[in-house]
Amino acid sequence: MKITAIETIVLRTPYTTGGSTQAEAWGGRAWDTADVLLVRVETDAGITGWGEAFGYNVIPATQALIETALKPVVIGRDALAPEALMLDLQQKLHIFGRGGPVIYALSGIDIALWDIVGKAAGLPLHQLLGGTTRDHVTCYASLIRYGDPDVVAANVARAVGDGFRAIKLHEITLPAIRAAREAAGPDVRLMLDVNCPWSVQEAIAIAPALREVNPFWLEEPVWPPEDNAGIAEVRARAGIPIAAGENVATTAQYHQLFNAGAVDIVQPSPAKMGGVTELRKVFALAAAHHVTVVPHSFYDGPAFLAGLHTSAVFQRESLVEWRYFDLESPLYGDAGRPVNGRIPLPQAPGLGLDPDPAVVARYRA
């Protein structure tokens, strides 16, 4: 089965998050809309696959990589051999970077190809990857950064009211973090993703105060994010489980992270680190190092579904990230949304859900 066409589609969907946010903290420009880069791959057998490439403020660069560098070498290749194709492309493109838009672009195509493989076989992705007895997966609500303790508390309470028993903050100040714990109560898991704000010594110094809120994990505490030795030192001295990995790409880089003893929880991001092909390798590598995998899936499209299927197969305790946005029109309608903190595992072939054509048409940039 040959690849005959690749189309990139940018969606800009209005959203709300329950109050004023500090979304400009990531990438310099505020997120006025939830921007998604979809990748649509067509084949000569009439089967279409959907992928998603990271994303947000870097979409123009990722889209350009797909349109100018990947289309000419991918069209005509075997759609049913994603691993062989990804290895070939990584080797050919390595001089342009082993992360960033190059790997983001490959990720989007890879996810679409696994969607095609599943559809061709008549199997959902989780069956292709080994199967699972789960029919639902538990989600944690991943909140945006608010900054204001009152707004943080209100949205934590809202997430608890929606049935989530695990909530992730992106706050970096103690008043906001403490307000979240008070609103959540003692029995809700509370994760802290601080997005690399501190030096090693600063992270260690603030750790005693953070321990007071009993965090389930502390995510990316150190700048720069690739300072594996620094993260490992925080892990050794902070007394809090450490998570990282959403900014790591390719299996080789995860190997370096694990060899440093840096993490208790690793968070590969399907749209950023190589798609399903690399993601399933990270699960195996993490198991050999006794590290828990909880994919970074701050998405609501094909990248979220890729993380959902792989988690259902390879995780001991099901847990996936759910972006706690109120989208004007979700890409999959109600079928792709959690209820009481749990989301059904799609059972149709491939990723199990295709984007709603009406949503794509309405929000296409």
C-alpha termini separation: 31 Å
Element string (H = helix, E = strand) = EEEEHHHHEHEHEHEHEHEHHEHEEEH
So what's the overall shape?
globular
Radius of gyration: 20 Å
- Total helices: the number is 13
**Biggest sheet features:** 9 strands, mixed
Mean pLDDT: 96
Strand content is 15-25%
Helical content, roughly? 40-55%
Ranges where pLDDT stays below 50 over 5 or more residues in a row are none
Estimated structural class:
alpha/beta
Number of beta-strand segments: 14
Textual characterization of the structure:
The protein has 365 residues and is of the alpha/beta class. Helices cover 41% and strands 18% of the residues. It contains 13 helices and 14 strands. It has helices at 59-74, 82-93, 101-121, 125-128, 149-161, 174-184, 200-211, 228-238, 250-259, 270-273, 275-288, 302-314, 357-363; strands at 3-13, 15-16, 34-43, 48-53, 136-142, 166-169, 189-193, 217-219, 242-244, 265-266, 292-293, 320-323, 326-327, 342-344. Strands 5, 6, 7, 8, 9, 10, 11, 12 and 14 form a nine-stranded mixed β-sheet that branches. It has a three-stranded antiparallel β-sheet with strand order 1-3-4. The protein has a two-stranded antiparallel sheet with strand order 2-13. A hairpin with a 4-residue loop joins strand 3 and strand 4 (48-53). Helix 1 packs across helix 3, helix 2 (82-93) runs antiparallel to helix 3 and helix 11 runs parallel beside helix 12 (302-314). The radius of gyration is 20 Å and the shape is globular. The mean pLDDT is 96.
